[in-house]
Every structure is written in C-alpha cells, then in structure tokens.
Design goal:
- Chains A, B: Pfam families: LacI, Peripla_BP_1.
- Chains A, B: Keywords: DNA-binding, Transcription, Transcription regulation.
- Chains A, B: GO terms for molecular function: DNA binding.
- Chains A, B: This is LacI family DNA-binding transcriptional regulator.
- Chains A, B: InterPro entries: HTH_LacI, Lambda_DNA-bd_dom_sf, Peripla_BP/Lac1_sug-bd_dom, Peripla_BP_I.
- The structure is a homodimer of 328-residue chains.
- Chain A has 328 residues and is of the alpha/beta class.
- Chain A folds into 3 domains: 44 residues, lambda repressor-like DNA-binding domains (434 Repressor (Amino-terminal Domain)); 123 residues, Rossmann fold, CATH 3.40.50; 138 residues, Response regulator (Rossmann fold, 3-Layer(aba) Sandwich).
- In chain A, the strands form 2 sheets. In chain A, strands 2-1-3-4-5-11 form a 6-stranded parallel sheet, sandwiched between helices. In chain A, strands 7-6-8-9-10-12 form a 6-stranded mixed sheet, sandwiched between helices.
- In chain A, β8, α11 and β9 form a beta-alpha-beta unit.
- In chain A, α8 runs parallel beside α9.
- The first copy, chain A, is elongated, with a radius of gyration of 26 Å.
- The relative contact order of chain A is 0.12.
- The interface between A and B is large, with 49 and 49 residues.
- The structure holds a DNA duplex (16 and 16 nucleotides).
DNA sequence: CTGAAAGCGCTAACAA
DNA sequence: TTGTTAGCGCTTTCAG
C-alpha cells in the first residue's frame, strides 16, 4: 500500500500538497493537482484514515448501544441514526450489549480510547452511573429510555401518556377488566407505562388488581405468550390486555388464538408499531412511536454535542393505531 | 486526557516501560509496574487506540455488509459474528447498504483506508466485481449469498436442496398446484431455490406454470402480501405456495387469512425460520437455516484470513420445520 | 530490566 | 501557491 510520501515523491511535490489535494483545499493550482491526481491513480493510493484520525484525534464513529437487535423496535430508529450519521460523514457502530455489563464496558472503553467519538444509548439495562461518568468527558445521548432528572440529553416519547391513551381506548370499548403485561420495573419506561395504565383505570373507577399485572423477564415474543397463558389461568380473567411492547402483545395474541374458547375475544393493545404488528392475525392495535425521527434527532443531538454545542432533550408525539385486535 | 508521556513522567520511567505495562509484557519488575499503575490511576489515563492502531496498522474492526437490518434473518447471524468477534478482541461495524451502491462504496473505502481490517458480506445486491477487486488486497468473506465459482470464500446452505425439500413436502401432502414466490433472479439464492422448486415438480411430473411463479421486488412482508393477492386472482389458483423467505411467506399467510373463502386452505412454506415464523396464525412451516453457526463460522473464517491463512468455503445443513401452515 | 529514539501516515502552522 | 517541519500517541528495535 502506497503512502502519502510516495505520492509526493512520484508527483514531485511535498506531502503537504498531496494532503491539500486530498482534502480539496482550494489553494492548489490545477496543474499541481493533476500531477498529484495522476500519481494517486498510478500507485492506486488510498489515504489511511488511521493517520488522519490520530492527527485529528477523532474517529468519526458513533456508537449505538442497544440490548439486542432482535427487537424490531430498534430497526427504524437505527435507520434514522444511520442516515443522519452518513450524511454528516459519520459511521455508526451497532453495539449489542445483550444486557451484559462486560459488553457495555467494552463499548464505554472504545469511547474513552478515542476509538469512537460519542455514544447513543437505547439500552434500558445500561449502567446509568457509568454512563453519567462517561458523559462528563464525552458526548452521550439517550434515545427512548432515559433518566428522569439526569443530565444526559435524551429524545423519547411520553410513555405515561401513551399508556394512558392505550388503556383508555380499551375502556371506551367497554372493557372493565384490563390486564397489564409489562417488564421489570427497574426500567423507567415500564414504571411510566404502568403509571399511565393506573391513571386510566382510576379515572374510570376501575379496579387495579395485582393479579392482572404480569411482569416479564424480557421482551421476546415468548415472554408475551407465557404472560398471556398465566392470565388465562386466572379465575377472574381479564377481558382486555395492554402490553408495554408490540413483541409482548404479539406473543399474547399468539397465546390467545388457538387457545381455549372464550365467551368474548380478549382485546390486545401494544406499543411501538413494529412492522410485524400489521402481519399478525388479528392485526395489532398499537401506539406508534416516531422511531425514524427519534433516531434522526438523537444523531443530530449527538453531533451537536460533539461540536461542543448544548442540546435540549425532546419529547416526541405518538399516535394510537387502531387495528383488528381491539375490534372484537 | 492524559497521554503516555505524562504517565511516564509521573511514574519516573520511560514511555517504553509504560507501554510494556499496558501490554502486559513480562519484562517489567513488580516495583516499576506498580509505579506505572498508580500513575495511570492517578491521572485517570486511558490509552488511545488511535495511536496504537496507527502504529500497528490495524483497526480490529470488521465490517458486516447487509442490505437491511429489518430482515430478521440477519439477527442470529449477526449474533454469531459478534460473539466470535468479541471473544477475539474484534468489533463489528454493521453496514446497511439499503442496496445503494454509494453506501457500499463508503464501506469498501473504509477497508481500503485501513479503518476496518476485513469485511463479511451478506448482501445479495453487492457489486461482485468491486468486491472481488477488494478481496485481492483485503480479507473478505461471503455469508449466505455467494458467488458460484468465485474466489471469495463463503459459508452458506444448499439452497437448491432446501427448496427441493420444501416443495417435496408440499407434494407429499397431496398438492399438485404449487406456486413459487421468489425475488429477483439476479440473486443466486433465488435462482437456486427456483431450480430446487422445479426439480421437485419435475420429479413428480407436475406442471411448471409461469403464472404460478411470482417475482417480488424486495423481501418485506408487504411484498409477500402483494404476491399472494395476485396468485389468488388467477383463474386456476394454486393449492400451495413456496416462498423463498419467511418474510414473504408470512406476508402470503396474511393475505390468506381474512381473505376470500377457499374450498381448501392454501399450504405455505418459507425459508429461514425467523423468530416471527412461530408467532403467525397459523404458524409457518419453514426450512431452518443454522444462522448463528453461519455467523460464527464466517467470523472465524475472516479472522483466519486476516492472519493470512487460507480458508475453505463451507456448506451447512438445514432442516425442515413442519408447523401449522402445512397441516390443513 | 529499562531507556532512547525511530517511525506508523497524516495534517496544519509557519515560512518562503 | 507550495514546502518544511513538528507532532498526534503509541509500539518496538536496539543499546545499555
């Protein structure tokens, strides 16, 4: 592999001039430029980013932390991040933590080691203390999951309101026994969505019964299946279910169809509007999050941060999408 | 941020010694080591990978090219790649090309520019000519999609056989009118799967009718829905459908349920065994690919390549998973 | 066992 | 407009 020296020699100019050509500096005569360019072609030269990165002390890489790419919720967010990043000459490194602290540490170190310029975390399981420490010296943005009252800027939706609206929709349909399938309440979104669920129930004077609230360990389909099966074993069965993610809701739907015959179909609502939610049978009523926009904004915020600008947290709008799973 | 110089100064040793401590060289007395270590702690020092990478002329990053992460088929493969990479001190950079050549070029350049040490391509839309050129000077592995008779090592399954077995399964169930939903035949897997489909039909003296073969533009759910709708409009409707991916098959299933009443249910088989395939109603019969293993092997092959070893292409086993969509 | 020094490939300040 | 040169932070050879 040729280096900048060899190009300079071949073209009969200095390395500085080659560098100027490489970086489209204006102060190069067309004649010199051509000389350099033909030397580059001749030697099949590709400038090394390693040298440039060291010199400029940047990597133009941003890290995107997420627990697992198997949750399609992240797909569109990632698209948003990626498109924004690329158009700003950045690249993204997708980092699956699998909710393992060791993994997380690897990625934190990449930032500390200058191998990445900043980090967008979408991982609810992230170690907030460590992330806060990192954020003192490095650009960090939270996306979707965030810390209340924390100092890291975030972009998210109003989870409490979303849950409230989802449950209210179920109530308006005449349901009075509404179950909640949620995940571990160590996660803020789970606490907020539960709060929204309870607010709706209270507002309509409906009972909040612990046995109708099921906590899953993860957000995989199977967790939703499992949850629904348990709820169906109750003496007093719910007539409707609100799940805090589409993956759980889809699992619940699966447990419902082909299961025991019930006097009434059980209505189901999810959150996220993942693409698969329109392929289930029945199709899933859900709250749509502006995933692409969240990703786009998170990336913009990160880049502002990297430039040293201050950025404000944002809360985006969501929308109830009514489909077959709540149409009896 | 402290650098190695400052540590050396603080510890009263040379930078060489600090470097030795950093890299666990044996030839450092415990006493010197402690001095250095406490200096590191005191200054909160983190070694810069930028310097190391330049010096060693490696990035310990591998690129993973795929058309879109929204196809869950890639999830498990990526897990396999990632786990292998991490345990070898590598990181992966997921690269969505969106089937756009500009995107692809960005990633190829990262390898040329030394920003990445090698590349695993799972992108059927990849520009094979350019990839071959790249492979002359850089480590490249193909995963899933490959080039027949090409010189880039690959890991894949026997697509022709998989398709043959899927269709044979439909035939054994008594189906004689079997449609094929496939994608553009510029892709090798599409050609191979069609070949398997035709081999099975011929073997049982069943007709191959062009109107029962539908080509989709992409592999999204919606493409499958669309395809099935067209097939249902035919005068002579097929009684079974083989789709070359689970996403298409799931779309087909969706078009089928809630649609017009048919004398017999239409059987559907897919390929991939993505996690959704078990959540549809009915659940999907499919050919399971060993996705995790494919990813694992691809990563190992790439690392061997990066060490300069020769590697052999591999064809892995698949398996027919029978579920409700072919159980009438 | 430790230090001095060269150098990886590039950019940018300064000089000409 | 172009060249000279210092140096980004690290590893590694060679000497001691």
């Amino acid at each position: 592999m040729a280096n900048i020296q060899q190009i300079a020699q071949k073209a009969g100019v200095s390395v500085a001039t080659v560098s100027r050509v490489l970086n489209n500096a204006t102060s190069v005569t067309q004649k010199t430029r051509s000389k350099v360019e033909s030397a580059i072609k001749e030697l099949n030269y590709e400038p090394s980013m390693l040298g440039r990165n060291l010199r400029k002390s940047e990597s133009r890489l941003m890290l995107v932390l997420l627990p697992s790419i198997s949750n399609p919720f992240y797909n569109e967010i990632i698209n948003g991040i990626q498109n924004t990043a690329i158009s700003n000459n950045y690249n993204i490194l997708l980092c699956e933590t699998d909710s393992k602290p060791e993994r997380e540490n690897i990625y934190f170190n990449m930032v500390k080691n200058k191998l990445a310029d900043g980090i967008i975390s979408m991982d609810p399981t992230v170690n907030m203390q460590k992330l806060n420490e990192l954020a003192e010296n490095h650009p960090v943005i939270l996306c979707s999951e965030y810390e209340e009252g924390g100092c890291i800027p975030y972009v998210t939706i109003d989870s409490e309101l979303a849950a409230y609206q989802a449950v209210k929709h179920l109530i308006k349909l005449g349901n009075e026994k509404i179950a909640l399938i949620t995940s571990d309440e160590k996660f803020l979104y789970a606490r907020l969505r539960r709060a929204g669920y309870e607010r709706a129930l209270k507002e309509f004077h409906l009972p909040i019964r612990e046995e109708w609230i099921y906590h899953t360990k993860e957000l995989e389909f199977q967790n939703g299946v499992q949850a629904m099966r348990i709820l169906l074993q109750l003496e007093e069965k719910p007539t409707a279910v609100f799940a805090v993610s589409d993956t759980l809701a889809i699992g619940a739907l699966k447990a419902l169809n082909g299961g025991l015959k019930l006097p009434h179909p059980i209505a189901v609502v999810g959150i996220d509007n993942i693409s698969f939610s329109n392929m289930t049978n029945p199709t899933l009523t859900t709250i749509s999050q502006p995933m692409y926009k969240m990703g786009l904004l998170a990336a913009e915020m990160l880049m502002d941060r990297m430039k040293g600008k201050k950025v404000e947290s944002m809360i985006l709008d969501h929308e109830l999408i009514i489909r077959e799973s709540t149409m009896g």
